[in-house]
Design goal:
The chain is mainly α. The protein has helices at residues 13-22, 35-45, 56-68, 83-88, 100-105, 116-151, 157-181, and strands at 28-30, 49-51, 74-77, 91-95, 108-110. α5 (100-105) links the parallel β4 (91-95) and β5.
C-alpha cells in the first residue's frame, strides 16, 4: 500500500481559467508536481499547456523563454518556489494565503485567494491603463490647443480658465467610471 497527499483544487479554479481564456489569455500550468498529477489537475480545470516537474529556477526560465517569444507574461504563484518566476514575470500575482516572499516579489496580491480575481485584476488593469491614456489625451489636447490660443489673445482668459477647470473635472469623472463599472 501507499499513502498519497495532494493539494485540494480551489472550487473556482475552472471558472477562473475559463474567464482568462475568454479574455484571450494563454493559460499554462507550471508546477513542480509529478507529470501525472499535473495533467490530471490541468484537465479538471481546463488547462491544455502543462509544464510539470519544474524546479523553482526552471519556472523562472520558462517565464524568460515566453518573454523572449514576445509574450507579456503574468505568473500566478503562492510559494517560496515561485518567487523567482514572480519577480521575472511582467506581472507577478501572488495569492494572499501564500508565502510572504511570494507576495513581496509580486506586483499584485489577491487577498481573498479566489482565483477568479486574477481575471478581474487583469481586466481592471487594462481598463485603468485605457482610462489613464484617455485622461492624458484630454489633458494634452487642452494644453496643446487652448493654452496657445489663449496666449495669443484669441480666447478670453476667463473662458480658458473655465476650459481648464472643465478639463480637470472631466479627468476626474472619467476616472470615476472605473468605480461605476465595477458595481
Amino acid at each position: 500500500g501507499f499513502i498519497e497527499f495532494g493539494d485540494q483544487i480551489r472550487e473556482s479554479a475552472a471558472d477562473a481559467v475559463y474567464q482568462l481564456q475568454r479574455m484571450r489569455v494563454r493559460v499554462a500550468m507550471v508546477t513542480g508536481d509529478a507529470t501525472g498529477v499535473a495533467n490530471a489537475v490541468a484537465k479538471e480545470v481546463g488547462i491544455e499547456e502543462v509544464f510539470a516537474e519544474v524546479l523553482p529556477a526552471g519556472k523562472s526560465e520558462i517565464v524568460k523563454k515566453l518573454q523572449a517569444d514576445g509574450s507579456v507574461v503574468a505568473f500566478v504563484g503562492d510559494g517560496i518556489n515561485d518567487v523567482a518566476a514572480l519577480a521575472r514575470a511582467d506581472i507577478g500575482i501572488a495569492m494572499g494565503s501564500g508565502a510572504h516572499a511570494a507576495q513581496a516579489a509580486s506586483a499584485i496580491t489577491i487577498l481573498d485567494d479566489n482565483p477568479e480575481n486574477v481575471a478581474y485584476a487583469l481586466s481592471l488593469a487594462k481598463r485603468t491603463r485605457r482610462n489613464i491614456l484617455q485622461n492624458l489625451a484630454w489633458a494634452f489636447g487642452y494644453n496643446l490647443i487652448l493654452i496657445p490660443v489663449a496666449a495669443i489673445g484669441l480666447l478670453n482668459p476667463m473662458l480658458a480658465g473655465a476650459a481648464m477647470a472643465f478639463s480637470s473635472v472631466s479627468v476626474v469623472v472619467n476616472s470615476q467610471r472605473l468605480k461605476w463599472q465595477n458595481k
